[in-house]
Structures are given as C-alpha cells and as structure tokens.
Design goal:
- It contains 2 helices and 8 strands, in the order ααββββββββ.
- It is α/β, with parallel strands linked by helices.
- The protein folds into 2 domains: 32 residues; 94 residues, Sandwich (Immunoglobulin-like).
- The strands form 2 sheets. It has a 4-stranded mixed beta sheet, with no helix packed on it. Strands 3-8-7-5 form a 4-stranded mixed beta sheet, with no helix packed on it.
- The longest helix has 31 residues.
- The termini are far apart.
- Bound molecules: copper (II) ion.
- Copper (II) ion binds next to loops.
- The site of copper (II) ion has 6 residues, from loops.
C-alpha cells in the first residue's frame, strides 16, 4: 500500500510544532522550578522536623546522658551528649554503658549557690541522678579519664 512518510527532524515539522514544543519545554521547566520552590518554602516555613535539635522552647525537666561502650579506652569518645540543658528543678541521669570500665561524674565547677556532685565509681549499668535547683553552668569530669568532660546548663 502507501509508503509511510519519512520521519522529519523536529525543525522540519510544521511551524505550529516548532513554536509549541519550546513553549511546552519552558512551561515544564518552570513548573519543576516552581514546585521545587514550594518544597523549599514548605521546608523553611513548615513544621520544624529538626525541632529536637534546634528547640528554642522551654528546657526539658529530665535529661539522660549515656557513657558509651568504649569511652574508657577511646579518647575520641565522651559523655553523650557532652553538654545538656535542663530546666531549673530538673534532673539529669547518667548511665554507664561502658562494658567493664567504671567511670565517675564529678563536678569541677558549679554556679554560685549550686551544689557540687560526685557519683563515685559507677560500674557497668550504674546510674547517677542529680536534681538541679540552682540555674547556671555546671562542669564535670570523669575522675579516671581526663578526656571525659561535660557540662550541664540549668536554665532559670
Ligand atoms: Cu571515665
């Protein structure tokens, strides 16, 4: 029967195609950029998915600090997290999760009117809890491992 017409390159296609195709491409690209913009604006203005890391709300009344396994031999490790913030009247609980290596939580500086604290030797799985009734910054160390040092910031 009839032979199929040869495929024409786009620039030899009818004028209407030559005009519409670029317009469609521009519109498609524009829509993508627009959608991306909406996504970014939702990220910036939407609910803060990182709120636990960048919270500027009231400080928690209860905070946990762990001593990871290996902290007693790896000087790159420390109390985790090394610095915590707690509300005045709140408590911080330390747990030694360092298998077979004891540690301490021993204050080295406390705010005026604040109480010093010392856990004494904490064996594996031992916990130590301090309630902070005076606001300010408390710095503490492990008596056994000089690379271990942390702080508790108590907000008023
Ligand atoms: Cu230690």
């Amino acid at each position: 029967m009839g032979s199929t017409p040869p495929k024409l390159p786009w620039y030899k296609k009818p004028l209407i195609v030559q005009i519409i195709a670029p317009v469609l491409i521009v519109l498609a690209v524009g829509a993508c950029v627009g959608l991306a913009g909406v996504g970014v604006s939702q990220l910036l203005g939407g609910p803060n998915v990182f709120s636990t890391m960048t919270s500027n709300g009231p400080a928690p009344s209860s905070v946990s600090v762990t001593i990871l396994n290996g902290t007693g031999i790896q000087q790159s490790l420390n109390y985790q997290p090394a610095s915590v913030t707690v509300a005045k009247g709140g408590t911080v609980t330390w747990t030694n999760n360092d298998y077979q290596i004891p540690h301490t939580v021993t204050s080295v500086s406390v705010p005026s009117g604040g109480s010093s604290f010392d856990s004494g030797q904490m064996n594996y799985t031992a916990t130590f809890k301090v309630t902070f009734s005076v606001d300010g910054t408390y710095n503490y160390v492990c008596s056994y491992h000089p690379w271990m040092h942390g702080s508790v910031i108590v907000t008023g």
